Amino acid sequence: MPNYKKGTRGNIARNNTRKRKFQGNQFTNNEGEKFEASVSHDHSASGKKLHARDSEDIITNPLHGYRIIEFFTVFTALSEIVKCSVCNQKIKFNECSSRGLGFKIVVTCPCGNKTINSGPFINNGFEINRRIVFIMRLLGVGREGINLFCNLMDLCTGLSKSCYANIVEHIYNTVKLSFEFLSQKAVKEEMEKNVEQGREKNILKVSGDGTWKKRGFKSNYGVATLIGYYSGKVIDLKTKSSYCQGCIYWKNKTHTEEFRKWIEYHEDECQKNHEGSSGKMEVDAMKEMFSTSEEKFGVKYGNYIGDGDSKTFKAILDLEPYGNELPVVKSECIGHVEKRMGSRLRNVRKEKKLSGRGKLTDKVVKKLTKYYGLSIQRNVNSVENMKKAIMATYDHIFSTTENPQHDNCPVGVDSWCKWQKAIAQNRDPRKENLAPLLGEDLKQHLLPIYQDLSKDDLLERCLGGHTQNANESFNATVWRLSPKHLHSGLKVVEISAYIAAGIFNEGYTSVLRIMNLLNLNIGTYAKIFADSTDEERITRQNRKSLSETKDARSARRQHQIDENQLFEEEEGLLYGPGIAN
After folding, report:
1. Which of 26-35, 228-237, 266-275 is the most confident on average?
2. φ/ψ (deg, to 5) at 441
């Protein structure tokens, strides 16, 4: 475990730029061959998911395409050079029957008038209106944003409430149907990978997590997801809402005749599907997904990877979705277990007033938290090895030259322990001048934390090194489509979740498939964009998964931590509650 000496502005950069042997760059693999996305799909989770995507069933129309033109300029010029083929007289162009962004072009000449639609027509509406609502949803923009864009671009007055609501309803039904197809496909793929791993075909291992539209456990909307462990794809999700505008409006009119008439048809349309606190949304959603897994997919979720942030797993155990014959087994997300060390250290620092130089500074807390996490990650096959590695880091941080405590530290020239590394290199470690990270007075405060976080029952749930990284990535995708700072109802949140699941599982190919179901024409540019975006995603994630790129990110983070601590020591505390008093 390295101990860094205090740096200055001048030597921070030098301390982090050690000359290293060339190991290949982000465009080469271990053999030095050129990195090609087309032959390296299996480097990252995204590559594994997207390399099998199939776009052959996507219907495209290379002749379709929209352009933004200024009507008066273009059609005034046309009227000067175009004549009627019947009467050989000049013609004029006007517009009429505007409906959202669509309208009719009126061609006038002495022979009479003729109208031309400005674009394709779907049922009783212009395609462009359905298209802009769907595409703007991919950008996280609703009706207000659409109307702002249309009016300031002088395109039209925008979409009416009724028109927008009808389109949203149609999109909702379509994306829900699309997600049901994708989830069935994902479950089938997970079952196939289960067999490849030597597991029972219909007993799946899944990771679950919940996310909310607002922080602080006061959100009206939440989304819970289950992702297959081997495929990395969303196989089921539930959206919860504790709010309904209609119910709020009629809350004080429950004894009226109008309310009784209203409630008859509202029950099927009510936006509220959750009773209780926001924190309970994840619990209820998971219970529903576990209890319906056999009916929907013909599978059972035998292993559950959770974060321990809620009582979800306890609720699943109490539910006994598959009876006594198949009790659900829990695995901990090792990333969240690592965070527990940081939380415990910050709590004891605040409670025992252990902040300041030589004590539990932010840098030290982050370092100890990282060492704890690495002790688990590097020993995911053995509880005993995990425990030994964790306690080795504890002994190491209090070791001195006079009282070395490096017996449990890894040996060899590649060891993170400088003491053991010096021994392996036939050097006297006592001459290394290795100062302890923390003083002996902190032992009594840290020992209970290390003992508690190295208990067998906790470490047993860390075996296998499972994480919820896929769930966290999906959660971010949902709120990009339905931004947290903008209000949206249950249907919009559900639409965002269903679209996000498609993008997460199969990239923008799923978006094109939804557009086909919506009867939206897919032209050349849309197809090229979807294909190139998916390929860029694979290339980007493959590059990020390379060890050289990971090392570079870690080095940049460490450099920033060192630099910030140096500035804080020089400048003192400049920001905090009540600091100006």
Report:
1. 228-237
2. -65, -15
